[in-house]
Give the backbone structure.
Amino acid sequence: MVESEPKVASVWTNRNFMTYMLGKLVANTGHMMASLAVMWLLMEITGSTSTASFSFIVVYIPTLFISPFAGVILDRVLKRRAMQLIDSLRCCLALIMGVAMMQALPPIWLVMLYYFLRSLGDTFYHPASQVMIPNLVERDQLVQ
């Protein structure tokens, strides 16, 4: 008689994991909408596709040059606190950009600075959020 392996509860029934994933889905949706809005704003301000294209370069500079060190830096701090701080800073950036847009069309340098700083925050936020998953699920659920 062959013994069957004990049943492992699905990771999709884990409340903490599902809350985390739902929050991540909402945040990523907002992030994508904000990226489209910034592209549209750059097109409105300049009418140039080159400027909108240049913004992609601005976004990937932190990813390219800082992400190799982000994990090392994050290993020295509490991940949850780092995520809270980064989210708070990204929220402040969005508020500043929103206020600037209500006044008038912001200058291109401000839009690019916003884009750069948001990308810099993402460079640190994503590795910290990935480390949180093992804290949310049981060890045998990690491979699901």
Remarks:
- The longest helix spans residues 15-46.
- The radius of gyration is 20 Å.
- Residues 5 and 140 are 12 Å apart (CA to CA).
